[in-house]
Please model this.
Amino acid sequence: MKINEIIRTRRMEKHMTQEQMAGYLGVTAPAVHKWEKGTSYPDITLLPALARLLDTDLNTLLSFKEELSDQEIAMFLNHLSEVSDADGVEKAYEEAMEKVREYPSCYPLILNIALFLDGAVLMDVKVKEAEQYREECEALYRRALESTDARIQNQARSMLISRYRGRKEYDKAWELLEALPDESPVDKKQVQANLMIDCGKLQEAAKLEEEKLLMAMTEIHSVLMTLMEIAIKEERFEDAEYIADVSRDASKLFDQWEYTSYVAHFQLYSAQKDWVNTLKVLVPMLKSVTKRWDLKKSPLYRHIQTKKVETEDKSRMKQMLLKMIKEDEDTAFLRERDEFQDAVKEIEDENGES
Model:
């Protein structure tokens, strides 16, 4: 509440009339009336006595509070949205800046007001003085950089980088980008790639994005395998097979190593003790281990430099997988089948292995 509202509320709670308050403080009743209307304010020398009379402290009386809660900020932003819809962006801007003056060090408020005004000006093409509001938003983002909260700093940096890119002030953009931590809610690598494109560094940008794609696919396959495992444990086998199909199709769609397209189904069929389908997947899966995965053949990974894996290393990996399958309890059901022994012999004889 503002000071005029506090004076009126506290006076009424203490069952005092304006005349009584005026008498206690040695002022006129019209003066008290003006205080409560907000048209004038008590003299600074009266504040201690007024606070004692109203049984409160000076901070409360002066509505002093450094921070607003997240809920209070959200409510104020909702209010600004209503004001903008009803009375226009200009009116919302006035109220927003008044709130910033009231809480000059509340950085979550400052950042969110800047984001709100940015969006409001963008959405309302008829708004007057749009450039002035954009400049004010930029000033608010710079103020938000003073926050000790890394999340607020990084979001403000991201917004400023976008502005500098738009004005081709690339040196300023790079400086802010370097201050962004690698691990933050803001996707630093994506911002970096966009800035590289702006500066004509297309190969560097492509390499960065291709590496991100590879990492994302690794994460996706890991998630799918976990979801499939859960579905199996819950005996949702149709769901599990669907997830395995998605894993296989994603591997092919994104030009992944052929081996990864078999893994999910091999795990599924092994869990179901389905020896027929397990063997159907096992043979091509193990054969795929020794096949070269040339990323540069795919338009998705043209710029990635890969280390050549020697044939000997691939054969060693195949032997290790085969040994694991021979000894793993989960695949013990296979070892009773002559078909499994034939498949193993086929794989071992392929490269002259014993």
Remarks:
- The radius of gyration is 34 Å.
- The mean pLDDT is 87.
- The chain is about 70% helix and 0% strand.
